[in-house]
């Protein structure tokens, strides 16, 4: 398979399922699920051919495991990262003692005063390892890895969730829990 085409489909799926389903007049339910047949039928608005086999390939081979099918593969959704309101029905989970966040130097002064904010997303995204945080931060320049004292946050009452693709999620990370 042409990796450029696969990457393009993955990026477009991310945009549609996480941020803008109305772009192709796609309906998501309250949990962010889209009907697979409807998605495939409406994908041709971008002059891209998408069938179930190609969609399955994209979902199974996405390096960040951004998407999931339901059990019978009739519905698909993004695992996290939504800027639209969806209920992912994630269970609260006790986090590792330390988690990591990849960012870039130009936003450090804001983070030092405001902590990590979810901004337009539903949650702040954290990684279990420095390597993943480094990749995330590196998408926008030279990465800076922040260490989050998630264990202390949890003990103080902050809630954490683990998405289907192992991204740690929380509503906010106050600056006092961040090691710069």
Written overview of the protein:
By secondary structure, the protein is of the alpha+beta class. It folds into 2 domains: 3-78, Orthogonal Bundle (Arc Repressor Mutant, subunit A); 99-179, ADP-ribosylation fold. It contains 6 helices and 11 strands. A 3-stranded antiparallel sheet has the order 1-3-2. Strands 4-7-11 form a 3-stranded antiparallel sheet. Strand 8 and strand 9 form a beta hairpin. The longest helix is centred in the first third of the chain and has 16 residues, at 3-18. The model has no long low-confidence stretch (mean pLDDT 95). This is Probable RNA 2'-phosphotransferase.
What is the secondary structure topology, with strand pairs?
Elements lengths: L2 H16 L15 E2 H7 L9 H10 L5 E3 L5 E4 L20 E6 L3 H7 L1 E2 L6 E3 L3 H8 L5 E6 L1 H6 L5 E2 L5 E3 L1 E2 L4 E2 L1
Keywords:
180 residues; alpha+beta; Arc Repressor Mutant, subunit A; ADP-ribosylation fold; 2 domains; three-stranded antiparallel beta sheet; 6 helices; 19% strand; NAD; tRNA 2'-phosphotransferase activity
**Spatial separation of the terminal alpha carbons:** 42 Å
CATH architecture of the largest domain: Alpha-Beta Barrel
Question: Which percent bin holds the helix content?
Answer: 25-40%
Number of domains: 2
Which series of helices and strands comes N to C? HEHHEEEHEEHEHEEEE
- Give the strand content: 15-25%
The CATH topology name of the largest domain reads ADP-ribosylation fold
Task: Kindly report the spatial arrangement of strands forming the biggest sheet.
Answer: 1-3-2
Q: Treating each run of at least 4 consecutive H or I residues as one helix, how many helices? A: 6
Beta-strand segment tally: 11
Largest sheet: 3 strands, antiparallel
Query: What value does the Rg take, in angstroms?
Result: 17 Å
Poorly predicted runs of 5 or more residues: none
Coarse morphology? globular
């Amino acid at each position: 398979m042409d990796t450029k085409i696969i990457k393009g489909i993955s990026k477009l799926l991310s945009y549609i399922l996480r941020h803008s389903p109305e772009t192709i007049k796609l309906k998501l339910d309250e949990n962010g699920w889209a009907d697979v047949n409807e998605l495939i039928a409406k994908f041709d608005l971008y002059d891209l051919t998408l069938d179930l086999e190609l969609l399955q390939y994209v979902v199974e081979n996405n390096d960040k495991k951004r998407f999931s099918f339901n059990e019978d593969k009739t519905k698909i959704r993004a695992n996290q990262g939504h800027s639209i309101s969806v209920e992912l029905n994630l269970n609260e989970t006790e986090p590792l003692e330390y988690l990591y966040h990849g960012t870039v130097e130009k936003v450090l002064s804001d983070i030092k005063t405001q902590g990590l904010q979810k901004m337009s997303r539903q949650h702040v995204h954290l990684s279990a390892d420095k390597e993943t945080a480094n990749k995330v931060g590196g998408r926008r320049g030279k990465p800076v890895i922040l260490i989050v004292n998630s264990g202390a946050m949890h003990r103080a009452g902050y809630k954490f969730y683990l998405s289907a693709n192992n991204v740690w999620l929380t509503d906010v990370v106050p600056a006092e829990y961040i090691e710069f």
